[in-house]
Amino acid sequence: MKAIIIGGGIGGACAAIALQRSGISTEVYEAVKVIKPVGAAISIWPNGVKCLNALGMAAPLRALAGNMASMAYRDHLYGSELTRFSMAPLVDAVGERPCPVARAELQAMLLDTYGRERVQFGKRVARVAQDAHGVTAWFEDGSSATGDLLIAADGTHSVVRAEVLGYPTPRRYAGYVNWNGLVTIDEQIAPADQWTTFVGEGKRVSLMPVSGNRFYFFFDVPLPKGLAEDRDSLRADLSRYFSGWAEPVQRLIAQIDPNTTNRVEIHDIEPFSQLVSGRIALLGDAAHSTTPDIGQGGCAAMEDAIVLAHCLQNQAASVAQRLENYQEQRVGRVKDLVLKARKRCDITHGKDPLQTQAWYQSLARETGEHVLAGMIETINGGPLN
């Protein structure tokens, strides 16, 4: 059996590794000539960590991960602690720790595990078609590829998605802009082993440790889409949006490098119930584009890869039946993740100011039990829990 995989990002690379380990021949086609990960870092929660462990990457993943031993929320004006608690109860409950990592390093690890030289870059898919015998993908450079099945891991702007669904799926603006990047750890801003988040005014400033003595940072601000802001105005924009915020926030703004800081308007896509059509399956952001508010976008793609590989091992079923089984196992899970992230997004970013204010007040009473219980429920919904 031969699988064509469209997309060499997190989802596509994980799928290629998982299928290869299952004895399935794979070919990976990536649109860009050089992959530049969207976003500076990613929090791989224990459900994703277990997937990467199962794909043989336990040791290299831990070499890339920061030590996130605790979690804290701080008041935006004074920097005073609203709540702080250990992540140990989460680790004890689910059997694995979270691993925040730089995206570029994660991507390199995945490509090296699969075999970077095997990925065909500069292959932007134009269209796909299938018949009773297989599936063909045609690329914009005039070349084509054929296989027994095709996995569309071509991201939130997926070209293949419409072929599966039969209709276009517009992206929904989530209402906020995210700036993110990496800085050297500075304990005058936040502890080196803690996920620290300053909250107020429907905005967030968050820092998370990754390897190499670095913080992954992000700023969230509810804004209209399409503003004329770029790296030239970045520091001034952040200074304006976070005027009056606590000294650690001002210190962070002063230290960031605008040339390596990303500005992203956050979107998601309304969940849909069809992930496959015949010999074609959607995976990762092509199947469930979500906001990053519960940190499960990349983890969900890793889960997809594990489930897909398991379903394809069923020798008694046709290719279409195996992919239908994948759909049955994933569609409810990924819909739940997208909607959970959307709900968290709205609460965090002030869609209903009274609800957001109530959340701030609840943080001052939080012992960690409630926050961690929600995380544990989400993590335990994964296929390896």
Automatic annotation (TrEMBL):
* Names of the cofactor(s): FAD
Boundaries of every FAD-binding domain copy: 2-338
User: What GO MF annotations does this protein's record show?
Assistant: FAD binding; FAD-dependent urate hydroxylase activity; urate oxidase activity
Q: Which UniProt keywords apply?
A: FAD, Flavoprotein, Monooxygenase, NAD, Oxidoreductase, Purine metabolism
Give a Pfam family name: FAD_binding_3
| Record's keyword annotation contains Oxidoreductase | yes
**An example Gene Ontology biological process:** urate catabolic process
Q: Which InterPro entries match?
A: FAD-bd, FAD-dep_Monooxygenase_BioMet, FAD/NAD-bd_sf, HpxO
Give the pathway listed in the UniProt entry for this protein.
Answer: Purine metabolism; urate degradation
Question: What Enzyme Commission number(s) apply to this enzyme?
Answer: 1.14.13.113
Could you tell me what reaction this enzyme catalyses?
A: urate + NADH + O2 + H(+) = 5-hydroxyisourate + NAD(+) + H2O
Could you say which protein family the record assigns here?
Answer: Belongs to the FAD-dependent urate hydroxylase family.
Q: What is the protein name given in its UniProt record?
A: FAD-dependent urate hydroxylase
Source organism (scientific name): Duffyella gerundensis
